[in-house]
Specification:
This protein has 189 residues and is of the alpha+beta class. The protein is built from seven helices and six strands; from the N terminus they run αβααααβαβββαβ. The longest helix is centred in the first third of the chain and has 20 residues, at 5-24.
Length: 189
């Protein structure tokens, strides 16, 4: 795993938890391949994510190389993510950043952090510990967010703190600013 070992382990944990929740509540997940509602332009990522995506593109993703030549002004016209293909699929799905992995799964936003997430989703439920949110496509049928236990949600602060720590260590080793954020579209530059 080398340079990106801790980051890759975090991605694996997120993916495993997401798979577990999808298996537990299969009727509640409507988003899937081709769903691109949340694939908007302007997403920013941390340096460890940026460099990991760039490395993956250079190493093994020829689909992205052909996609890169088609991005141009179409991205700004549609206000979509630079990696969203014309067929609505993510060109970097296996390398996508944390924010993209988190959104479809229920997230618990601890009390006091709601403003950081700009909570405005129809799919939200509040409790004394925080707010549960997820993509508006999910938990609209089957089980609702109000019926979920906190064990069925990812604690957003825990993940963000882990990612921040991983990014900080990565940036310090590279002599980079650990507070800098990068537009995901800049990976293609």
């Amino acid at each position: 795993m080398g340079t990106f070992g801790n980051y890759i382990r975090l991605l694996e944990k997120i993916d495993a938890f997401t798979a577990e929740i999808r298996d537990k509540h299969p009727l509640s997940f409507n988003c899937g391949p081709g769903c691109s509602t949340c694939c908007v332009g302007g997403i920013t990522i941390w340096r460890v994510e940026f460099d990991h995506i760039r490395k993956q593109i250079g190493v093994c993703n020829t689909r992205v190389t052909s996609h890169k030549s088609r991005v141009t002004e179409k991205e700004t016209e549609r206000n979509n993510c630079a990696f969203l293909n014309d067929d609505g699929h993510c060109a970097i799905y296996d390398s996508r950043p944390v924010v993209c992995r988190l959104w479809g799964t229920p997230l618990m936003i601890p009390v006091g952090h709601e403003h950081e997430w700009g909570i405005h989703s129809r799919a939200s439920s509040q409790s004394a510990k925080g707010t549960l949110i997820c993509c508006d496509q999910n938990f609209a049928r089957g089980r609702s967010l109000e019926e979920l236990s906190l064990a069925d949600a990812i604690n957003s602060q825990t993940v963000i703190q882990a990612l921040a720590a991983i990014n900080h260590v990565y940036c310090k080793k590279q002599d980079l600013d650990p507070t800098a954020r990068y537009a995901i579209s800049e990976v293609l530059a």
